[in-house]
Amino acid sequence: HVCSLPQSVAALRDAVEADASLQQKFVNRHILTLRHFDASLLRQLFHLAARYELGDHPDGILAGKILGTLYFNETREHTFLSAASAWKKLGGEVLDFDQYIDEMSLQRYLTAELAEMINSYTDITALRLPDRDTLELNLDYFTVPLINAGNGEDHHPLLAMSDLYTIFKWRPDLLSEESISGKRLQIVINGNPAQTRAIRSFLNGIAQFPWAVERIVITGRNAYPLDEEQRSYLLNAGLHIEYAYMLYPKESAMGALRKILPETDIAYFHTPYTANTARMNMVDAYSSLKKDALVLNPQIQNEMAAVLMKDSPHNCHCAQLRGTLYVKMALFALIFGRAATTS
After folding, report:
1. What value does the mean pLDDT take over residues 278-293?
2. If you ran DSSP here, which 8-state letter would residue 241 be given?
């Protein structure tokens, strides 16, 4: 896909001018949700990530710094690997708490004790937690920046940042309302935004760029796919959200998808097929996408999804995997105030 090409990365880099005053706002900051960031800050992040992806990054700027990784009760997947790789590429060391998780859980460490351990042993820590409340309720205990690598079904800002970075490499004109040179996006989301942190975070991210989106269509037969708090936030941000079951009430889920996909620019499919859908039908549905449309976040670790998407020209999963490394490198550099050391 075009978003994977070096010239696309360069176009994103050139679309944003570095601003030291905005970059300073990242220093020593917790990264908990994209609702804490606006378009101006995210543009600075993506500009620096693009520079890094093009090879314009210094070595060793985080030498002597320690990234802690603490993942409770969930799989670590590539989130841990990309964070550790990004950190080490900048010269830092990783302290992985994984082998001590069971003991820490059994001893039921108080939050204050856990925070003191993190504050004493690390310079920044990536946390994955099984619930949505722990981070917000106990932030005062922590004196080092925290990176939310997933808190229950609530937020996963790092994944959403890589999603947005992929989109803006494809369409850098969408970064600013004044620079739009093409049509605004029509986005289809397949999944449950109320119970999926990846989708929730993606929506929070795209809400910072409402001018880029014409409409978002949520597929599925769940009558209330957005909880009330989500719906209110997104509508107040200026997003126009519709539901496939209301647009096509007499169609099956697959029938509605066939009608929607030909006009779709981005298909965000957390689950790119359903158990009751034949692969042949899904391949046929994907074939109706526009020539340069993106399919984001397929569950590539699932065997059927991998078979379904591997030959598709719309598949941006590998571009996301590559891009998330540079997004995290840029984020770490910004948090420690080292972005200005690049030429």
Report:
1. 72
2. E
Characterize the bridge pairing of strands 266-269 and 185-190. Answer: parallel
CA distance 5 to 17: 21
Q: Which two tokens stand for residue 142?
A: 């922590």
pLDDT at 60 over 90: yes
Which DSSP letter does residue 250 get? Answer: T
Global pTM value: 0.90
Contact 178, 171 (CB under 8 A): no
Identify which of 17, 122, 117, 18 has the alpha carbon closest to the alpha carbon of residue 62: 122
What is the C-alpha to C-alpha distance for residues 261 and 35, in angstroms, rounded to an integer?
29
φ, ψ dihedrals at 19, nearest 5°: -135, 105
Distance from C-alpha of 78 to C-alpha of 139, rounded to nearest angstrom: 26
Cα angle for residues 309, 311, 316 (degrees, 5° grid): 60
Q: Rg of the chain's alpha carbons, rounded to an integer?
A: 20
Listed residue (273, 339, 265, 328) closest to 304, CA to CA: 273
Mean pLDDT of all residues in 207-214:
97
Predicted confidence (pLDDT) per residue in 257-268, tens digit: 888 989 999 988
Residue 202 structure tokens: 């993606």
49, 330 contact by CB (below 8 A)? yes
Question: What is the sign of the dihedral through the CA atoms of 291, 296, 301 and 305?
Answer: negative
Number of other residues whose CB lies within 10 A of the CB of residue 252: 12
Q: Which helix (H) or strand (E) holds 127?
A: strand 124-129
Round to whole Å and give the CA distance between 275 and 3.
30
Neighbours of 172 (CB within 10 A): 24
Q: Are 91 and 60 in contact (CB under 8 A)?
A: yes
Least confident of 82-96, 98-112, 135-149: 98-112
